[in-house]
Amino acid sequence: MSTTYPSVTASSLAATALRWAGVAWFLVAAFGQAAFIWFILAFYGVRTARGDFAAWNDKPLIDGYVAGDDAGNFVFAAHALLASAVTLMGLMQLVPGLRRTRPVLHRWTGRSFLAIASFMALSGIWLAVVRGTYLSVVSAVAILVNGLLILLFAGLAWRSAVQRRFERHRIWAMRTFMVVSGVWFLRVGLMGWVLVNQGPVGMTDDMSGPADVVLVFGSYLIPLTLLELYFAASRRENIGLKAFAAAVVFLAAAYTAAGVFGTVAFMWGPYL
Ligand code: HEM
């Protein structure tokens, strides 16, 4: 009896490792983002539905509910609650099965995702600039740049879809997902850092310590860089580059898993 084995070459091994690294990272991120959605609904959703707006401040916030500031409270509520919708829609867009089998759903969730993401950026910029909600100037600048990148990338993803340039659209949509996830990455990055270092090394209360500065800008610049590495390695027939990218993405998945554990156990869980 003879058995035929599929031929395994270094090139196919590197390509498979890269694909699985991407899948591993996505599964960890999907779990962590589902936890973020669950926290937003269980914390802000429940308190808002009860009409107990002052209870938004049951967890540490810079402003949250401010007595007498109706406009600010309204924008804060819309921003915090819609964060659950944008996170859910972003995840749905990335599931390949849904994209293939439900193209109409993909188009509608895609349009809603881009519209809500733009609202998140504009309302976030309003909260920071008009309401004056920020901890330090450096953290405010970092999140303002994040907001501007969301608007720019969402515009480019939308334009390439309208022009039916689908490969370009896929690339800009993935970049948009990364910058829209910046706020989630920041929380995961902060908790991952605290866990890995067993303490808030290089961090200050107003988020202006050296580790804070790296994390506030890194919350979107690092994921964007890794995404570009993933794209370049997927495109090129370079075994070394594929193997390197696979190792980096696996490491990122491990760090993300530590950060997700930290956010659920210490940042969100205790307030539910
Ligand atoms: C699209 C991605 C975004 C998501 C998913 C998101 C999510 C959230 C959530 C859940 C909160 C409630 C606070 C908390 O529990 O942590 C919040 C607050 C806030 N967000 Fe966003 N946000 C996004 C984008 C932005 C942007 C781009 C900016 C600024 C340019 C911004 C500025 C703020 C501010 C100033 C607060 C109030 C924080 C406080 O009072 O402590 N957000 N955001």
Note the total helix count.
Answer: 9
Which ligands, by name, code or SMILES, are bound?
Answer: protoporphyrin IX containing FE
- Count of DSSP E strands? 0
Rg, nearest Å: 20 Å
Bin the strand percentage: under 5%
* Ends distance: 61 Å
Query: Uncertain regions: pLDDT < 50 for 5+ in a row?
Result: none
Overall outline: globular
Q: Percentage of helical residues?
A: over 70%
Main beta sheet = none
Number of structural domains: 1
Structural class: mainly alpha
Mean pLDDT: 96
Q: Short summary of the structure?
A:
The chain has 272 residues and is mainly α.
Task: Give a verbal description of the structure.
The protein has 272 residues and is mostly helical. The chain has one domain (13-271). 78% of the residues lie in helices and 0% in strands. The model has no long low-confidence stretch (mean pLDDT 96). Bound molecules: protoporphyrin IX containing FE. Residues 40, 61-64, 79-80, 83, 86-87, 117, 120-121, 124-125, 127-128, 133, 143-144, 146-147, 150, 180, 183 line the site of protoporphyrin IX containing FE. This is DUF2306 domain-containing protein. Keywords: Membrane, Transmembrane, Transmembrane helix. The chain crosses the membrane at residues 20-44, 74-96, 108-128, 134-156, 177-196, 208-231, 243-268. It comes from Phenylobacterium koreense. Pfam families: DUF2306 (PF10067).
